[in-house]
Amino acid sequence: MPLRQKIFAVMVALAILVAIVELVRRRKLKEEYSFLWLLVGALMLVLGVWYGLLQAITRFIGAGFTSSTLFFFGIIFLMLMNLHFSIKVSDLSEKVKNLTQEVALLRAEREESLPSSD
Amino acid sequence: MGRSDCLVVIPVYNEAENVGKVIDGVRECMPGLDIVVVDDGSVDGSVGIVKDKGVKVICLPFHMGYGTAVQTGYKYALRSGYNYVLQMDGDGQHEPKNLPDFLRELKGDRADVVIGSRFLEPRGRKYHGPLLRRIGRVLFAAVTSFLIRQRVTDPTSGYIGLNRKALEYLSKDVYPVDYPDADVIVMLHRAGFRIKEIPVTMYENRSRGTLHRGMRPLYYIFKMSLSLFVTMLRRRGEPCL
User: Fold this and answer.
1) Alpha-carbon separation of residue B201 from A65, B23, B208, B212 (angstroms)
2) Is residue A55 part of a domain?
3) Is CATH 3.90.550.10 the classification given to domain B6-233?
4) Which end of chain A is more exposed for a tag (fewer CB within 10 A), N or C?
5) What pLDDT, in 10s, does the model give residues A72-106?
6) Mutate: best of A105, A111, A114, partner B, most B CBs <10 A
7) Which domain holds residue A96?
8) What is the ipTM of this complex?
């Protein structure tokens, strides 16, 4: 791996790590959701510094090129992230439904206890 | 003030044209019953009509869909201590004269869940409806009957009676608020509830703003197939959430 490429990969990885940490610091991203992104940033950093590892993984999975390995794992990661968010959205939908019902029931209860208010 | 042990739950969404007639019909047939209307975010003045009739109304803050509205009614009935719930649509599709039949079955302890079927009606009117809906209904009636080893002719009826035990079960998060019908029947059966169909009179949808309107048939078939499949994969008497 040429030095210039290595420097670029390391800088991108560092930028991602810094961006994630900054988002958590500003409370724009919860720690819970930052974990996987930090893991990816760290992995990019490791692979940027240690190209031999990427080559070993490429040989291990039988891929022809190191770039194929990166794309393959990148796509797998994005799919898993989407699945993770779909699970979260399902959970949140259930909670929104329960909250909505609770609001409606409490409002009805309150109206019942104040019969002459309207 | 003496209170009935049975509550009529009527979910409505933009049913200003019909909800008043439905309430009058219920009062005429069973004057002693309590009624609650669950408004699913109507914008056509349905709530005002219900209030003018002196009927209790629960307003969801925004439109959430038929299943959520119905389940809100279940939760209200449960909290208020009712032993039976009779659920009917606010679009005038369900004939209130059949309400006593539901109550008779429930109070006679012949079933935990009573479903009104338009196809068991002995002499009456033939119900048609849109072709795709009819195909879906026939298909899922057959699948449901096969899965629960009991003849079910009208899984999409929406005209339902429940006792308190079934009410408690359906008020939990196990209830699928997204088009709840055939999958709920299978779920109830697997949880050990006794289900019975009785003949009822049902009319064609009178209004345009019905809760079932805009149902995407393909999504419905997908959702219901998946829901039935995973219901069968779950263990019988699964723990309630």
Assistant:
1) 69, 17, 20, 18
2) no
3) yes
4) C
5) 999 999 999 899 899 999 999 999 999 999 999 99
6) A105
7) 65-118
8) 0.76
